[in-house]
Design brief:
about 775 residues, mainly alpha, Arc Repressor Mutant, subunit A, Rossmann fold, about 65% helix, Tscrpt_reg_AraC-type_HTH, TPR-like_helical_dom_sf, transcription, transcription regulation
């Protein structure tokens, strides 16, 4: 078929399916009787665009035609051309035409005064009927026009369990896993269902009672099944179970040839959805026809990579990346695999030694490839939003970042990753209750996720003062057969921050964990903090050095601990050299670098040098605060340090009036955003009293925190790190410090005895602690 003829036919097929919001690349390829990769190739050659872009632009061109009739509201037009979200329609329209639908008449494309040709009678009848059909569809099947809430009225919840493979060849077992995951992925596209993620539902023990599984996963229904080979045939047996009663509601067997596993998945998904809804309109069936790839081997590698990438170790992430790179070799049009590569390169930098420059380059490379292939895939849109989240400034770019993740949830309300990212974004801008709601939704979708449970417990413990509930969650997580390292170190630091500070138990938790998993960054990082809190500097240096060897280019696990130890030991020239090296050679954030340089010069007594650095690099920040342009709501965490040190410098220079002004501003921030960081509830009263030069208020806050009730985590290390250096000259401060140090050394003696018994004590350290 000539290329132009092919494009004309493809365009007509899209127009014939215009009302179907889920008519995408896979459906178009099926209608044309060709593979998805062939469709991509032919559209690319003829139109110089991706197949998904080809479909979307046809929809948008028809939308402009409808706008010219001046007969329909923009919201109706969005549905008429196959968008199930008017917000997403407006975004795409603006990107394509350069202006929004509402301003089309101002751009010479639509004029309310101009005479427009009257649509044909058949068209005038067809459009209202189409809108009526859509309205019925939305009303009957529960599809939300704008995404709706994550828990719509009458929502049904479902978990797909990992299918058993009954064949003799265990090497074929991945097909059962892939079939279950494809069924789950298809059903998760339906807004009528809450579908628990595979990472939770695939790990339950199916030998347990259905009621126990259902309660653990928080669902009403379970889908279970098995797969076997019979000659050249695949046979699947699938059943739908009432999770509360264990009663089997439906079962059926499906048989296809061994190459038709994706067709089998579509049929199973359709039947399950029909059992839950009794009727399934044809347009809605397309919601579950969204194949990520037609290559089974590529899908297997993708699923392995997604599972492996959840393990936040460098070698696990790099292995997952290797599998994904092999997956896209097998299917170069696998958009979701490119999206996952984007996500994992972001993780590799945080949990490993990948430098920031390489991270950004690889994330952008794979993100663009994914967007080119399928910009309407929820996973691709998530990768784009995640890229913006990592690259952007949360406070300055929060509207755009939030919009990106919400767009994903509009398309797929079951997208737990987007809910978790929105938790992080809203937490970063100080909207803690909103953030907590998104975290709870992420847990609702992925209830057995270690990370989500650990973060939930962390927030309950330090933000919402529900310490007992939080500790129970962490103990449960830590007692699992394969506990996450997060649950282990959170258990340790929660023990240390209990009333009175159980540092002996906390240290033993870390030490036991390091025996099982030596050189694990989380254990080393938090073990260093516990050691510094006990004035065990040699042990802290050991932990910091091991992290430095393992993560030489990671600023969080290498630079910051090394800088902190330099300050505690008052090795100020070393702190300056360290910071300069990291700024020049290792890509350390310039704001952090200059903040730390100014801090070191101030502690050295070189107030003028500290002042010059601060005014050279942060003068705009100070002007914005002084003029009222900068509000406490827009102050970033990275800007607290330069403001705080500037207050100290101003006081050292005798400018009390200006110091008081900035101190009042910073205290307003502390009072309004006391939950922004983990230990803020404890430290912000101290910081506020300090910057306001209120010695009595500071000593009262310090005494209450350390002794009454004794939430001690981080306090001694802050004092030794000269965090409150301007007060160190006062006898009242020195007296309280000696009391705190005596109690610290009492706890340290217990830990030293334990370490010696364990054989993890270097005798050289005895002299270092004298």
């Amino acid at each position: 078929m000539p290329s132009n003829g092919f494009i004309l036919r493809a365009r007509q097929v899209v127009l014939d399916n215009l009302l179907n919001p889920q008519f995408g690349v896979s459906a178009l390829a099926e209608e044309l009787g060709i593979s998805r990769s062939e469709l991509y190739r032919r559209v690319r050659e003829a139109e110089q665009k991706s197949a998904s872009q080809f479909i979307r632009e046809i929809r948008l061109d028809r939308a402009l035609e409808l706008l010219k009739t001046d007969q329909y509201p923009i919201t109706e037009i969005a549905y008429m051309v196959g968008f199930n979200s008017p917000t997403y329609f407006s975004t795409c329209f603006r990107e394509y035409f350069g202006y929004s639908p509402s301003t089309a008449d101002q751009n010479g494309h639509t004029s309310r005064d101009a005479k427009v040709s009257e649509p044909s009678k058949s068209r005038k009848v067809l459009l209202p009927l189409a809108l009526g059909a859509l309205a019925i569809l939305f009303a009957i099947f529960g599809i939300s026009a704008v995404g709706g809430s994550n828990s719509p009225e009458g929502e049904k919840s479902l978990a797909v369990l990992k299918f058993d493979y009954l064949g003799a060849d265990s090497a074929q077992g991945y097909k059962a896993y892939a079939l279950a995951d494809e069924v789950l992925n298809s059903l998760s596209n339906l807004s009528m269902l809450k579908v628990v993620t595979a990472s939770s539902s695939f790990q339950v023990d199916k030998r347990e009672a259905c009621s126990k599984i259902g309660k653990r996963l928080g669902v009403d229904y379970l889908v279970d099944g098995s797969l076997s080979h019979q000659g050249n045939q695949l046979k699947a047996s699938v059943k739908l179970i009432d999770a509360k009663t264990g009663i089997q509601l439906w079962s059926e067997s499906f048989q296809e040839n061994s190459e038709a596993i994706f067709e089998m998945q579509e049929e199973i998904s359709n039947k399950v959805a029909m059992q839950l809804k009794r009727s399934l309109p044809e347009d809605v069936r397309d919601l579950i026809r969204q194949r990520r790839t037609a290559n089974l081997e590529a899908l297997e590698l993708y699923l392995k990579a997604v599972k492996k990438g959840k393990v936040r170790y460098e070698d696990s992430i790099t292995q997952a990346i290797h599998w994904l790179e092999r997956s896209v070799e097998l299917d170069p049009y696998f958009a979701e695999a490119y999206a996952e590569l984007t996500f994992l390169y972001g993780r590799w930098h945080y949990y490993g030694s990948l430098n920031q420059e390489e991270r950004d380059r690889m994330m952008e490379k794979y993100m663009r490839m994914a967007l080119e292939l399928n910009p309407e895939s929820p996973e691709v849109l998530f990768a784009k939003a995640d890229f913006d989240y990592i690259q952007g400034n949360i406070l300055n770019d929060s509207t755009e970042i939030i919009s990106g993740f919400r767009k994903v949830l509009e398309m797929n309300p079951n997208h737990h990753r987007s809910s978790y990212r929105l938790h992080q974004v809203f937490r970063g801008i100080g909207k803690y209750h909103t953030a907590h709601g998104y975290l709870e939704n992420a847990l609702r979708l992925d209830p057995l996720n270690h990370l989500y449970n650990n973060v939930y417990a962390r927030d309950l413990f330090w933000k919402w003062d529900q310490r007992e509930k939080a500790f129970v969650i962490i103990l449960e997580e830590a007692s699992k057969e394969n506990p996450s390292r997060g649950s282990i170190f959170f258990k340790a630091i929660m023990l240390a921050d209990q009333p009175g500070g159980n540092y002996l138990s906390a240290f033993s938790v870390i030490q036991e964990a390091l025996k099982e998993q030596p050189y694990t960054y989380g254990f080393l990082f938090w073990g260093r903090l516990l050691a510094l809190d006990l004035d065990l500097v040699p042990m802290a240096k050991k932990y910091a050095h091991l992290n430095q060897v393992k993560f030489p280019d990671n600023p969080i696990y290498t630079y910051e601990p090394a800088y902190e130890i330099c300050i505690i030991e008052q090795r100020y020239p070393d702190a300056l050299d360290l910071t300069h090296i990291w700024m020049e050679d290792k890509g350390l954030d310039k704001k952090l670098g200059y903040t730390n340089l100014a801090r070191v010069y101030y502690l050295q007594g070189n107030v003028k040098q500290a002042r010059d650095i601060l005014l050279q690099h942060f003068s705009e920040l100070y002007r914005d605060i002084a003029s009222g342009k900068m509000t406490v709501e827009s102050l970033q965490l990275s800007e607290i340090g330069p403001v705080r040190t500037y207050i100290e410098v101003l006081r050292a220079e005798g400018d009390e009036e200006k110091a008081t002004f900035f101190a009042d501003f910073l205290c307003s921030y502390y009072n309004q955003h006391g939950k922004r960081v983990m230990l803020a509830n404890k430290f912000y009263p101290m910081h506020c009293a300090y910057v306001q030069n209120d010695l009595k208020g500071f000593l009262r806050a310090l005494n209450e925190a350390f002794f009454e009730p004794g939430h001690r985590l981080g306090i001694y290390s802050h004092l030794k790190g000269s965090t409150f250096s301007a007060f160190e000259k006062y006898p009242e401060y020195q007296e309280l410090f000696r009391e705190i140090e005596a109690e610290t050394h009492r706890m340290r003696a217990e830990v030293i005895t334990y370490l010696k018994e364990e054989g993890d004590w270097d005798p050289v350290w005895d002299a270092a602690l004298q």
